[in-house]
Write a structure and sequence with these properties.
mainly beta; 9 strands; 3-stranded antiparallel β-sheet
Length: about 110
Amino acid sequence: MDTHNRSINVLSQDYTDITEQLGMSSWAKRNISDLLKYSPAINDSYMGHYDQIRGDIYYSSSRNSLSFSERLKQYESFFSYENVIGGTNYRNRYYMLAPSNEKTSTDL
């Protein structure tokens, strides 16, 4: 995620702006913060989390999460996974960690 240009990019053989390529550039301009320092207490910026089982990347903020599927090479959906500060795979599930006692997981 490029906070300076407010875009999401893929690095492979070259540098590709997938927000522009996949029609999400207006959303990115409105939602990706220009903040240089991430703080869980002030979660205005997006933090990325990777689900190794599904090959999904979640970009989470205090407002929502945007999911990108590496397998489909498309954005999948917005989710109400707010305030996620980390994630981990464990026994065929992906668990997202939030500051509260609530947890969110995605099943296979």
